[in-house]
Batch of 3 targets.
Target 1
Amino acid sequence: MTEAVTLIEHARRLGATLQIQGETVKVKAQAPLPPALVEALHQHKAEVIALLEEERVVPCPICGVGTIGLPPGEPCACCYTEGRVKPRPALAPRLTQGDRLPPARACPACGEKVWWWRSPNKQWGDPGEWVCGTCHPNPALEVVPRRPCP
């Protein structure tokens, strides 16, 4: 089987993915594979299928049952449904301006409750913030007088 291992590794280095569909091996790649490699994969088809089948079955780290397509170290679905593993908490959604309410408090400098959202600056890691509209007027809302057309 060492020849089949070498062929699979070569195909994957060229950006190909190999999947078993019934008794055939489907090869997907952005660029065509060299004809010699395709011919060699055809010649060692049975060995390639056997190796890909071994890759697909992964034992669950909790119950030991082999599951197809299970990421290494990840418990199987049965372990979650039977309570052997607690489900992972969902990730907190990323908040945007629409999800955030303006502060209910008044500005400590002027006492007004007029707020506007200053957008985040991802380049500097700035998350954005509510800014007092009286002390710091929103530059996007300032009216710039236009010159009349000649």
Target 2
Amino acid sequence: MATPGTAYVIDSKGFLENLIMVDMDNPPEGVVLEPLPSSLFKPKWNKKSKKWVEGLTKKELEPKLKEKEDNFRSLLKARVKAKAKTLIEEVAPIYKQLNWHADGVFDTPEVQEKVQKIKEIRDNSNKLEAQIEELSSLEELEEFAEKLK
């Protein structure tokens, strides 16, 4: 019985041309069975090392890495903001119910405690966003993202 799987067709220079389904027990000649890393922008098969490598030149790669880093940074900031919003909504559902124009509404200890907690959440969110801005590489951003989980 055949075991289906994905194989990669490469050109004479090792660049990825196509994906095909094959019988993994009897693959056709000249295809690569090694899984393709998702981190490569232009996959190239290195026949000597039998590994996928980045096929872009440094000059071609730099703007793509910068774009990926910027996108990841924006995503992290959005996650921090969303988490802060969720925490605020958990801490202070009373905010949705308050009449903001009512006299003395902020005088109760319960409301003051919630206001203080919201300030702490916002401050923490701002600090995390500042830390994200200070990170200088995609690797640092990925490590930071792992800590946020």
Target 3
Amino acid sequence: MMNIGHGYINTVGITLKEGRGFDPILEKTDLDHSVIVNEKFVQDFRIEDPIGKRITVADTLNFNIIAVIKNFYPGGFWQPISPMALFLSGPERLYYLVVRASIEDLPDVNEFLRSEWLKVIPNSPYEGFFQEERLTEAKDINKNIKYIYIFLAIMAIILSAIGLYTLVSQYYQQDQRNRNTEGSGIINYKYCIVT
């Protein structure tokens, strides 16, 4: 479950598969009675024709499904997609401000947000971050996993080569012992290898 504001879906670029988003005109109804779910929610709970269906939360709160959104990764690409329900919340229950801006405007927007933050809440540190930082973390984890697999592949090749060398050496020693026991000398053995 996730509490969101009116513009969240458009700001982060979530695709609406069917239905409508939260409407400022219907805010009272949407606050108390509406929910948006993702495809995984519909699939896991086997809901057919989900728009208009009622779900119950915490055994007492009833919400009507007003939209289905495409699946997305809210916490990172390494976490599996889980069923999600988005609820419209008032400002008292929202904890993050999400801003969308063009790449060239990001530093200016971030500086503006920092200065406004210090005006409104001077005793609390500004902890803004770029979504790219979160994606970089996911990329670093994937890169490290790739390096681990490359290392393991190289070690497997080295161990296989050592094992093959050991088998050939044992075969050569056993063959040499057999030839020595049968009476053939080393000179004859070398002659057999050359020809």
